[in-house]
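> tool_call: predict_assembly(chains=four)
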Amino acid sequence: MLQSQELTDRIVARFDEMSPQLQKAARYILENGQEVALVSMRELARNARVQPATMTRLAQFLGLGGYEDIRAQYSQALRLQADGFAARAQAREADAPSGSGLAYGMLQMLSSQIARLQAPESLARLERVADRLAGAGRVYVLGLRSCHSVAWHFHYVMTLLGEKTVHLDGPAGTGVDGMRRAGPQDVMLVISVNPYARQTLELVGLAQDKGVGIVALTDSEVSPLARVAEEVVICATESETFFHTLTPALAVSEVLCGLLADRDRDRALRALQEADRHLQGLDTYASDIPTRRG
Amino acid sequence: MLQSQELTDRIVARFDEMSPQLQKAARYILENGQEVALVSMRELARNARVQPATMTRLAQFLGLGGYEDIRAQYSQALRLQADGFAARAQAREADAPSGSGLAYGMLQMLSSQIARLQAPESLARLERVADRLAGAGRVYVLGLRSCHSVAWHFHYVMTLLGEKTVHLDGPAGTGVDGMRRAGPQDVMLVISVNPYARQTLELVGLAQDKGVGIVALTDSEVSPLARVAEEVVICATESETFFHTLTPALAVSEVLCGLLADRDRDRALRALQEADRHLQGLDTYASDIPTRRG
DNA sequence: CTGACTTTGCAACATGTGTTTCAAATTCTT
DNA sequence: AAGAATTTGAAACACATGTTGCAAAGTCAG
């Protein structure tokens, strides 16, 4: 499969060999690449003042099957460009095996989804969420079912940073007990994506009743959480396999931790060093498989 | 003529008034704006799993003449976005404040780290790990401390897919009990990065003694796990803040789930449908904050 | 000037498009 | 539980699509 730049190069290289009508069509394509992706070939032909058949002949002259191949490459180029992810220069190799093709596609999509979080609006939201969490008395962290990992990880890192977060989770249904002392000076960070766990929504309702601020990581502007949260970060969940992805949400969670740590770097560093000493003292880490005796 | 942001705002504003199918179409358009410009409405409807008529109804519901009006606006937005791409990228890098700069840098690095997993060698390893796991009697999943999220999520998704994984985790130190019946036909998937938890390494040693196969997600070719595992996938952990990132490892975990599901798509689909019915039957999900009585 | 070859316009073709209409299915109200 | 209203799926419709094939037009060599 060709890149649109590669196709562009090929058009330029063979321009002299083309008949006048082919040259007319080729020039129009070179000068209006995004229109190739956005309008039909017949409309493009009209705009270029050539016959539709000329476009098909041009594609075949260039060694392609038909005009659809031209459009597909310009469409893909526009997708990559619109995503704003400069590092993804290489398109997928033709005929990759099914398994690797799936893995490749999943990774490409994940990378793109995380890159999209770099948009100015998204960055501004991340800042506002971090501000809100930094100013809270206590931060309650809630993520159920598939979102558990994101909530747990946020809480884990924040405890290493010496922050007072409360993870609303626990065995034998005790997780919600953590909300007992919550009040208006506190904030709940809730992570939930479609399909939304009823218990998550119920706990958010409870938090609202107690005057707790809500900030949310969710999948859409039309999520029920988006309606009640003061601040929302939208995390893509679309996936090329059967279930939604939580990788962008984890990325966002880690970025929030980073922003919070950044607000008091000295304190965060001290807390990490203390945690490190504590864990070293407990012999928590090792750098090799222990040799077993007996 | 509306801007696509204005149309987006209108969709969000009126979302609650929409029927379930209109909401499904609306959500898909919000999440896939550039596809609106790049593919036909019938193809978009197929991807969104709605009837073509639904797309037309949505447009009319929004006060537009027909779907073409939706497409025209998203096309125009894409034209504007593509035109300004290079200039906006440069402005962002020059002007971003410290906080957003940190967030931007973290996201850029994460996106790049995941993109690097698309290398052929990495894809080949993913295939081999998936093969090994697919052929196992039982899969034991181990990830402690910061790696807990990745292990838990893998286990969670695999249970949805109907697979027999055992998560070596549990309260009151009981997690290791799951290893009691492990044997040579089983495989352990271990996730650990520097600093490596001693208990992780001890359990890996125990698994080796029992003849259990080991596959590892870890951070380096020189990780202690890399020395003892049959297959290794290297996940970057480098971060622009104080602590290592687990986002690439979660991405890898999800890709492995996808590859395993791909090996028996029909079975995976049936398992997910059964899980869905089961959870629906338990009233696990909701689409709005419940109204509290009293 | 003529014949051969190439280029080009145009129409037919099979298929896809967005919209409309109708009836079945679902939901809501009484 | 029944009737009304709304939602939805599916098919038909008119039109647009990209491609193919044929013949007219144009160009070039002898």
